[in-house]
Design goal:
With about 600 residues, the protein is of the alpha/beta class. It contains 22 helices and 22 strands. The longest helix has 25 residues.
């Protein structure tokens, strides 16, 4: 495996115009000196690799650049660029490794960790009877032949960067080692035939099995790995789900659930107990749902809040953890996706001295982000901001946050009965669920307070109908309600693989989009790449329907007019619907028409 140490690599990079002739001469002049420098750094950092540094490491450390002929931009000659060139020259596919696409069992059982680290190889998955193997050295055919012979399977080599291979080896093998050790400790030889089907029934071999505690070191490492891995993958939720024979770990990324790990059922109970211990829940209570929270220190140096919910299901306890990143929850109100008109109207709500502002939408539509961002913008030392939440999602020192605790009769209504004696300027109510809470919110608005809250309705106009259904008098709604806003989240197009395409407007017009039939439109979509895991989407943004309660609307609220008719009046006054706001984001290349149709379908 000498190719990456030889002048053949320089010949290939020169032939493919990754480096110039002058850069090659510079590399040859600096090669020996840079090698010694990297060796000293490796000794300080404890890197024990006999193949380090090779010529790829040396060139990457020289910070050279290459100019693209197509765009004129300069790009760093880094490890990935060189390994792509090597893959092209050797006619072997190149791939940026995505941990979500790897089979952990295949990766950790085909070869040992020491062998994988020494040879810079990593089994990925079995595809159509062939083992996909990530390799760093393009001339490692004898190594691959040995693996084929040992495992009795043909190998498809794929070139990857050594940094990708090392990172995944450390993550996968470390996690698998912890899980395997925990499983071995939990499952004795005599209990292998026992079947645990959780809350349905349980078959127990009374010859005994060893209980694994949540304080076991292997379980601690496994739980820490799951937390850090979720943050690395930008997951918004972690699901740990018990099945009949295994336990699934799934991450929600950009609104979609991905199965990350399939773990032995034997370790599920210990994982759940460890997580419940960290969130100060009752470990012994497995029959009732519980809620808690954890605060962890991320690798980036910032703290991340985790909101935790456990619930008993057929095969045990299911845990769902919401990852609450302050950078996402507390955002600049200008950057969450408002159009110019909607931003102006919503800021008018924020600057009002008193009244009620309602934010509506289903669970997971971004209501909390909107409200927290709103409070952060208007909270000043001169204002007393009090929130009533169930539960408190993200703690912020500028707010006085009160958690609802029904077990001791601390509810939205009971808190609101006493909250006005706390001299608030701004009140945020997590959700208006009943007549009593709604009445207290109206009372607070009528006595000179600005109140923000949420409702579960499909659009902005339906909020008024919902308040009437709760039992509020129409004249009270008309006199206190400043406005209502419905919102949803749509996936945004991946900027790394964004492309233009042409589409006939006939189909879009038939689906209800505001376009004239018979025209050709130029829209945007994501082709799918490694950055977005082939989906074409990366990240999400809000779409909004902001309805101010105008004088005309105030007059007709008391007439028992249906929400559909109120919506028509609001549109006539300038309101854009969710579908219209989303379509503007399609035209601006933020999202796709398919995503808009999925989110706004009625």
């Amino acid at each position: 495996m000498q190719f990456l140490q030889s002048d053949q690599l320089l010949d290939l990079l020169l032939r493919l115009r990754i480096i110039s002739l002058q850069q090659r001469q510079f590399i040859e002049q600096q090669r020996s000196r840079q090698q010694q420098k990297l060796l000293r750094q490796a000794a300080k950092e404890g890197i024990a690799d006999k193949n380090y540094p090779d010529l790829v490491d040396i060139i990457a450390s020289l910070n050279l650049t290459v100019k693209s002929k197509k765009t004129g931009k300069e790009y760093a000659i880094n490890e990935e660029l060189m390994m792509r060139a090597v893959a092209k020259g050797k006619k072997i596919p190149f791939r940026r490794l995505d941990p979500l696409e790897l089979d952990m069992k295949v990766a950790t059982t085909t070869v040992s960790k020491s062998f994988a680290s020494l040879q810079s190889v990593l089994p990925l998955k079995i595809n159509n009877g062939m083992l996909e193997m990530a390799i760093y050295h393009p001339d490692c055919q004898p190594i691959l032949a040995d693996i084929e012979k040992t495992n009795q399977i043909k190998i498809t080599p794929i070139i990857a960067t050594r940094s990708d291979i090392r990172r995944i080896i450390n993550e996968f093998f470390g996690f698998q080692k912890s899980i395997r050790a925990a499983e071995n400790q939990f499952t004795s030889d005599n209990s292998s035939d026992a079947l645990d089907i959780g809350n349905l029934e349980r078959y127990i071999n009374i010859s005994g099995s060893q209980e694994l505690t949540s304080s076991d070191q292997h379980i601690k490492k496994a739980v820490n790995h799951i937390f850090h891995y979720a943050l690395d993958q930008r997951a918004s939720d972690i699901h740990i789900e018990p099945k009949k024979d295994l336990s699934l770990v799934r991450f929600r990324i950009d609104g979609l659930l991905h199965t990350i790990y399939r773990l032995p059922k034997a370790v599920h109970s210990a994982l759940v107990s460890r997580i419940k211990f960290l969130s100060r829940l009752d470990i012994a209570e497995k029959r009732r749902p519980q809620d808690g929270r954890i605060k962890i220190g991320a690798r980036s140096g910032k703290d991340v809040e985790i909101r935790l919910s456990t619930i008993p299901v057929s095969f045990g306890e299911k845990v769902v953890m919401r990852m609450l990143d302050s950078d996402i929850i507390f955002r600049n109100i200008d950057g969450i996706g408002f159009s110019e008109r909607d931003l102006k109207v919503y800021k008018g709500f924020m600057q009002s001295p008193h009244g009620i502002v309602l934010v509506t939408g289903p669970t997971g539509s971004g209501k909390s982000t909107t409200l927290y961002s709103t409070l952060k913008e208007i909270a000043t030392p001169e204002k007393n901001v009090i929130t009533v939440e169930d539960p408190v999602e993200m703690i912020h020192e500028e707010f006085n946050q009160i958690a609802v605790q029904p077990a001791i009769e601390v509810t939205f209504a009971t808190i609101l009965r006493n909250i006005l004696r706390q001299d608030p300027d701004i009140i945020m109510i997590g959700e208006i669920r009943d007549k009593e809470t709604a009445a207290h919110a109206v009372q607070a608005a009528m006595t000179g307070h600005l109140v923000f809250s949420t409702l579960h309705t499909n659009d902005a106009a339906s909020s008024i109908t919902r308040l009437r259904d709760l039992g509020l008098e129409p004249f009270l709604i008309a006199s206190t309600l400043l406005g209502c806003m419905a919102q949803r989240l749509v996936k945004t197009i991946c900027p790394n693989c964004k492309e233009r395409f042409r589409v006939q407007s006939n189909e879009l017009a038939r689906l209800g989009f505001p376009v004239k039939a018979g025209k050709e439109l130029i829209l945007f979509r994501g082709k799918g790449c490694r950055e977005c895991r082939g989906t074409g989407y990366k990240g999400r943004c809000g779409i909004f329907e902001v309805m101010p309660v105008s004088p005309d609307l105030k007059q007709i609220i008391s007439t028992q007019m249906q929400s559909v008719d109120m919506k028509k009046i609001a549109i006539r006054e300038g309101m854009t619907t969710l579908r219209q706001d989303a379509w503007q984001k399609v035209l601006r290349g933020i999202t796709t028409w398919e995503e808009v149709l999925r989110v706004t379908a009625e």
